[in-house]
Amino acid sequence: MEKMKRPTAANLRRIHRKGRGDAVNEEKDAVIIAVFGSKGGAGKTTVAVNVATVLAQKGKRTALLDFDLQFGDASIFLDLENKHGISELVQEGSITKEIVRSYLSLHKTGLSLLPSSERPEYAEMVQSSHGERIISGIAKGYDFVFIDLSTQMNDLSLMALEKADKILHVINPDISTLRNAKKTHELMKALKLDHKIQVVLNKENSSTITAKEIAGLMNIKFLAKIPVEGKHAVASLNRGIPVVINVPRCPMSKKLIDLATKIGEGNYGSTGEA
Ligand SMILES: Nc1ncnc2c1ncn2[C@@H]1O[C@H](COP(=O)(O)OP(=O)(O)O)[C@@H](O)[C@H]1O
Ligand SMILES: [Mg+2]
């Protein structure tokens, strides 16, 4: 007999899903993955866009929500329109599944993007209750929903972290990021969200601090370690083509593809040595 699991929302959803079987595939809730990091430029959008792209390429029904409302740029990474996004969506009378879906932009890989907005000044109109309805509107009928978050711990991001099945915490090997990461982990612990955290070390070889030292310092293991790839990462962003498509064989893409494969299989084992 299966061991009793903690009665978290995610576990209840999983148990509920099991009972219904696969025949009602359309009604399944997606695995929700929030991508968070306390420092701008850490690589949250890079990780979210590329991992989501790979899963879409593999035939998984995948959506990406750009919850970095003021300066979200997922649409630039994917060369998609950003004109009508979340800030415009919340001005609709009600946020139904149909309305949410009408705001999605489709990438040629099959990935659906809900952009943020072209208008940073509209961001304050978006409340966490709106975000919650957007997530509920999109969760059914997708296999994976990624939420690209801003660096701020506001009501909207806290709600997204609550709703998420997994939180990908993107960090870099520099002291200021690591100090913030430690604070973030303490806060997540206080909020009882720490069991969802999976750490992704991005730009791994960009400093003298090694992955092993970071793992020891923070008492963590990494789900993925992604090397710095200056030329290809920025060139891909400038062309609006995810690096995993633009240069699939470079070391950075290989690690992002490995990460997507793990997530696709629900395998959250660490990378090994640290
Ligand atoms: N592993 C990497 N190697 C080199 N450049 C990277 C890497 N990851 C991200 N970048 C670059 O760093 C910049 C910031 O990345 P981004 O994903 O926008 O960060 P965030 O969303 O956390 O603010 C972008 O120019 C991106 O192309
Ligand atoms: Mg970003």
Q: What characteristics describe this protein?
A:
alpha/beta, 8-stranded mixed β-sheet, Rossmann fold, disordered N terminus, binds adenosine-5'-diphosphate, binds magnesium ion, 274 residues
3D structure, described in words:
The chain is of the alpha/beta class and 274 residues long. The chain has a single domain, classed as P-loop containing nucleotide triphosphate hydrolases (Rossmann fold, 3-Layer(aba) Sandwich). The chain has helices at residues 9-20, 44-57, 74-78, 86-89, 97-102, 128-139, 155-163, 175-190, 211-218, 230-239, 243-246, 251-265, and strands at 31-36, 62-67, 105-106, 112-114, 144-149, 166-171, 197-202, 222-226. Strands 3-4-2-5-1-6-7-8 form an eight-stranded mixed sheet, sandwiched between helices. Strand 6, helix 8 (175-190) and strand 7 form a beta-alpha-beta unit. Helix 2 packs across helix 12 (251-265) and helix 6 packs parallel to helix 7. It is globular and about 50 Å long. The two termini are 33 Å apart. Mean pLDDT is 89; it is low at 1-26. Adenosine-5'-diphosphate binds at residues 37, 40-46, 202-203, 226, 228-230, 233-234, 237, 252. The site of adenosine-5'-diphosphate has 18 residues, from helix 2 and helix 10.
